[in-house]
Amino acid sequence: MIIGRFYGDRHTTIMIVLTIVAIIMPALTIEVLYSEAAKFSDAESQHQEPLLYGVTDGKAIGTYLEQKFKRYLKESYEFLEGNSATGLDFPGLLVDVKVTSIKQPQSSCPFKSARQKIFGLGYSLLIFVYDKIDNSTNRTANLKILHTIYISVERTADFQMTRGIINILQNEGNKDDLIAFMLDRNLPIDEIEAANIADDILRNPPIQGFLTISNALQWRLQYGRVIDIAGQQEGVIAVYMANK
Hints:
By secondary structure, the protein is an alpha+beta fold. Helix content is 38%, strand content 21%. The strands form two sheets. Strands 1, 2, 4, 5 and 8 form a five-stranded mixed sheet that branches. Strands 3-7-6 form a three-stranded antiparallel sheet, with no helix packed on it.
């Protein structure tokens, strides 16, 4: 409880009240993010949105949902918002939000280094998987959230790449075996960088990743596997699942 008296004009009083509210807002944490994402997914699944009726652009739908989720969180929590410099939606938590249709569950992300395919993206992912249904009677659209999945940073490497490397190490493979494997898998590196990465792998072996990452100017992330295994593997958390 705050006891005191406000002095000055109405504008000053409002500013003081807003400042007090901002101070007492709790900070957003990973655990809270899980919980609120589940509540948001359930509420959004029941919402009819006129602005999305007839919209087929997946990027526009993703922007709508990401911005709405941030506005929802800002009502109750303090957090650092992302921008073009950070490239993440929640840079303070090292979490990026992805929104994708169940019809083709995939999205893109910036390519920073070929090492990301082996050691992970460097941040965690919160993925909303939706099925969009248009209602021609009232001209609204419903985004039914089928899955909301959190992938921890250490599980964001490529599944086949990390599995192959782990198998090589378990079968007494050496630096030459690792270099040959990476080049055979068309990892976008030259032989010098392959040798450097092989040294790093021997010093710090990667753990099993669960994304499918396709080589391109931007990484293409595919989520079919994580949808199937969410809740069954450490680091791949089923935050929300729609009732079947």
